[in-house]
Amino acid sequence: MSKFKIIGGTPLKGEISVSGNKNAALPIIAATVLTDEPCTLHNVPRILDVMSMVAILEDLGKTVVFESNTLKVSGSITHAVPSQELVRKIRASILYLGALLGRCRKGTIAPPGGCVIGKRGLDIHSDVFTGMGVKLNFSTTTYEAVLPDEQDSYLFLQEASVTATENALLLAATVSKETIIDNAACEPHVSDLANILVKMGAKIKGIGTNRLKIKGTKKLKGVTHQVVADNIEAGTFMIAALCTKGDITIKNIVKEHLITPTFYMNLMGAKPEFIDNTTVRVRYERPLKAPSRKVQVGLWPGFPTDLMSPMVVLTTQAEGNTLCHDWMFESRMFFCDKLVGMGANITICDPHRVIVNGITQLKAQHLSSPDLRAGIALVIAAMMADGESVIDNAELIDRGYENIDERLRNLGAKIERVSS
Ligand code: EPU
């Protein structure tokens, strides 16, 4: 176990490159199960969640070489029952069920683990699979799935679930009949998975929209693919620049994936400057004001739930009241207690809504994080607080942010990892 020690008060300055998108890399790694041919994935973030998905891939029998940010996967899987212990480490392991059904027409998986940010059921996954003709046997300890026959399928997702859409894509890519997914999630990471499946041989129409039409093939090909940039990491760095009154240039971004966070930052008077479609400069020029409307998470292209925790920290530095609303996750806002402990003026209205009254100077604290995104939000809070903060369980942040302490140090942050 390790922790971060952070001395606040230094503005972040300099250049930083955004990593590959965590939530694209995870389903793409699962997609390599669908072929026996070699796959080469570039721009894969070296984060703990990726390592967990790789460990499952190896357990299934694949050979994996991970050098720098390139992941080479070869060989065939030898069974369809991944280790329960590995599956329980990460919620995205549920994506192996779609991939195993695609490759072997069967799979057995333990209930997945993951960050505790609220009740996270698998109803939509179950709807997707049964809608495609899969026979499911979900018990408290195992999920068994078998696909007896291929069929044409029309799926209407009652919720536009990201990983359920991805599971449907993983299976549909191997089914020669037609699958239609209506009310599909259309986040950039879902599109990135669809794009790699097309390169592997599936025909997919409607990528980037909420209606996907898929005609697959049992024999998918090997592929070389560059994972799309992580829009959540990019948004996190934009917020960190403003909170620390810094001036940073963020490279390797996709401008159009940052439209909504940029909209709110503009409302607050921050004015991020896009140099081109892949680079943005964010500099603090004047005190921020509370946005003139509430910050509410939305399905893509709305404001991403995974950016809400850093956004709450940013609103502590904006003059006036901001209502922040995350209707997706029941526990997303629980970390606000920790910000209140640091001196923030936040009224917690209910599990989904907080009103932040800024501007407050935060003070250092000994903190621990309930989940990945709250963790990075607390790192940002600590970087602008008076004094030295300690954030326990740094590994939770390592799940989604590559080498975060060194990269922030390169921008001037006083952050140190201490192993215990
Ligand atoms: N939801 C609705 N209505 C909808 C869509 C979603 O109520 O139309 C609710 C769900 O019930 C659930 C929550 O919103 O409580 C998220 O649902 P979803 O099934 O989309 O989440 P997921 O597929 O399990 C992925 C990401 C999460 C991210 C969510 C939402 C991966 C591996 N995980 O999870 O990422 O928060 O989508 O965008 O892609 C993270 O990276 O920190 C993370 C938790």
From TrEMBL:
Entry annotation: catalytic residues: C115 (proton donor)
GO terms for biological process, alphabetical: cell division; cell wall organization; peptidoglycan biosynthetic process; regulation of cell shape; UDP-N-acetylgalactosamine biosynthetic process
Chain positions found as 2-(S-cysteinyl)pyruvic acid O-phosphothioketal: C115
GO CC annotation: cytoplasm
Subcellular location: Cytoplasm
Superkingdom of this protein's organism: Bacteria
Pfam families linked: EPSP_synthase
Residues bound to phosphoenolpyruvate: K22, N23
The entry's keywords: Cell cycle, Cell division, Cell shape, Cell wall biogenesis/degradation, Cytoplasm, Peptidoglycan synthesis, Pyruvate, Transferase
Family, per entry: Belongs to the EPSP synthase family. MurA subfamily.
NCBIfam families (alphabetical): murA, PRK09369.1
Function of the molecule: Cell wall formation. Adds enolpyruvyl to UDP-N-acetylglucosamine.
Name of the molecule in the record: UDP-N-acetylglucosamine 1-carboxyvinyltransferase
Protein's organism: Balneicella halophila
Gene: murA
